[in-house]
Write a structure and sequence with these properties.
Oligomer: single chain
Order of helices and strands: EHEHEHEHEHEHEHHEEEEEEEHH
Helix content: 25-40%
Strand order of the largest sheet: 8-9-10-7-11-12-13-14
Number of domains: 2
Number of strands: 14
Distance between the termini: 53 Å
CATH topology of the largest domain: Dihydrodipicolinate Reductase, domain 2
CATH architecture of the largest domain: 2-Layer Sandwich
Amino acid sequence: MNWGIIGMGYMAKKFANSFSSFNNTKLLAIASKSLFKLKKYGDKYSISKNYRFNDYDKILLCDEIDNIYISTINNSHFEIINKAIKSKKNILCEKPMVTNYKQASQIINKLRKNNVFFMESVPYILHPLTDFLIKLIKEKTVGDLIEIISTFGNDKSKKNNHRLFDKNLGGGAILDLGCYPITFSNLIASLENNENQMPKIYDANGIISNNEVDTEASIKLCYENGLKSNISVSIINNMENKTILVGNKGEIIINNLWSPGLKSHVEVNLKNRYYKLFVQSKYSLIENQINDVNRLINNNKLEAGSKKMNWVNSLNNAYILEKWKQILFMKNEN
């Protein structure tokens, strides 16, 4: 299966480094508006010069490419996804898939009409660690789940002119980091239901910068089954990046849920017992995602399973992120 990458930023480089474990999968092509990056990464990943595209439209017209990974700036995703659908390419798009709910709805409707594979790239959700956590929850390891507490923050404030601090580029902590704890909360809330659960937002706070970007934000959610989720994200402070599953018999602590490695662990803290459980993964985080996407496509699926990053999950994620931003900015105006 041949892959092409559009946009050669940080995540694209991590993605390009993840093909060596597969015999039947190849990074065939890259596209960048930077000739320097085309040369540098084309040489690094042994990309034939015929498959180094300076024009995003041209890589989408290349018949030899089966799958496209979109790794451009957030505000460009909508246009590129639409073109990829038209070209009938299988699509993996870096999160957030788009910058607002209206665009997300339009994309999902177009996908349904055109029978094109699409997945939003939130790789932790496909990792064995997430499956292991689901197993622990279903086994009532800490009893009935009451609350999820999640943090995700990385200080990017020292990086001059970083895209995250430009609202026109789809910057901000909510769009860039919020999708991780939001998708996890939605996943866990939906485990015992056939339908995806949508929460009520009962509080949202944060910091808005002078250039109108949400640099730090928190939100409190409550689901129909009573599960609460307390989330904090930041692009100006390093947070613990920890997730705690609170049950009526104890708690499960995960220190690196958003970026698990080949070997991960969780801490189980019961009222009279504390222990660690370890999880092994055959593949790295991104390798695991590539493998899963390939498997889905080979099985003639157009989206992930209902408890993973399927289209409805991406749509719900976009809706909550947008409402979170709206509430925060309305508070700031008042």
